[in-house]
Amino acid sequence: MEISANQVIKPVILKTITGYEFLNYDEIIRVEANRKVTLVYIVNRDKPLIVFCNLLTIESLLSIPAFYRCHRSHIVNIRHIKGFLVKSRQLVMINGNEIPISEERIREFKEKFIPGNQCSQKAIA
User: Fold this and answer.
1) What is the pTM of this model?
2) What is the pLDDT of residue 56?
3) What is the CATH number of the domain that holds 42?
């Protein structure tokens, strides 16, 4: 979904223990399914927001290109990815969290977000 400069972007509205939380897309770092609740990690907050809907429902709310389902339990905001650990197949987020990428999605992730492996450094002999 392309967003023009004149479009108003509606906030994501999530049901919490105390009511409803209105969030801008850019505030969301990542989302994690955790048993019967879903944890939403937000910029400038120490603790995740606990919401009462499943990951599939949140995935439908976050249906813009900035969000990527990298694992059955995780959705990440690609704007908040700090790095990619090749050996452990994990994304490093701006808050320091390391998020796994499932075996089924690793190739897709590399093709989509690391085209041509950008720049690779070679050891100097």
Assistant:
1) 0.83
2) 92
3) 2.40.50.1020
